[in-house]
């Protein structure tokens, strides 16, 4: 189907055109699976959540009012589905990226541009993905989910709170704790800075990182960070951590959907 923009796709979906739904599955399915896999730590569970989300979108596309992008709207539905699954299946099973997965990532990147060699940073990127995935297993589930929603999926504190059914302040508290723990776990990978100090300044430093400090507070905290080796080291660690989290969202690392899976989703939607 020849879709030139999102507005045309939404119109076609609302007109119940089967080919539009097939196009939607192929366009956003891989991204949805990537997000779901990070939260659920299972490719099978992620595919099920993605399929559930796509079917819900097909059935309820009339509810889409265009206040955000179509993907943002779908992403919210996916997050709700993933969190509901987590609450029902609560598993401590660790999901690691296998060696075969790494080989597939490298192969897909190579095939996309046969004229170019692999970027020299790709191997390090994959290694960091492994390190981050391993580190994420070491923090409590309630902190891990908040960290993923805020720093990887890039939801606001308010949006994360709504999804989780907790207060905005509790989201921020858990996020601060999770970032601090992750920064310490990843410190050898990120920087060689000092141990965390200035405990009384940590909350203000986190507000500085989130960009929510008042204008009156920003100047003094910025000056403190510039003159404090410990706080500047922590800031560098957090920035590095968040940057590496977001490598998990790289489009080149999104899993491709099999033809059989796409066909099955479309068939269920049209049944």
What does this protein structure show overall?
The chain has 271 residues and is an all-alpha fold. The chain has a domain at 1-92: Rna Polymerase Sigma Factor, Chain: A, CATH 1.10.1740. The protein has helices at residues 6-14, 18-40, 43-60, 70-89, 99-112, 122-136, 141-152, 157-164, 168-190, 202-210, 215-227, 229-246, 259-270. Helix 6 packs across helix 9 and helix 9 crosses helix 12.
* Computed CA radius of gyration, to the nearest angstrom: 21 Å
* The level-1 CATH class of the domain at 1-92: Mainly Alpha
Q: Structural class of the secondary elements? A: mainly alpha
Shape: elongated
The CATH homologous superfamily of the domain at 1-92 corresponds to RNA polymerase sigma factor, region 2, helix turn helix motif
The percent of residues in helical segments reads: over 70%
Count of DSSP-assigned helices: 13
Strand content: under 5%
CATH topology of the domain at 1-92: Rna Polymerase Sigma Factor, Chain: A
Q: Whole-Å distance between the termini? A: 20 Å
Strand and helix order: HHHHHHHHHHHHH
Low-confidence parts: 91-100, 108-120, 191-197
Task: Please state the average pLDDT score.
Answer: 76
Total number of beta strands: 0
Specify the biggest β-sheet: none
- CATH architecture assignment of the domain at 1-92: Orthogonal Bundle
How are the elements arranged and paired?
Blueprint: H1 6-14, H2 18-40, H3 43-60, H4 70-89, H5 99-112, H6 122-136, H7 141-152, H8 157-164, H9 168-190, H10 202-210, H11 215-227, H12 229-246, H13 259-270
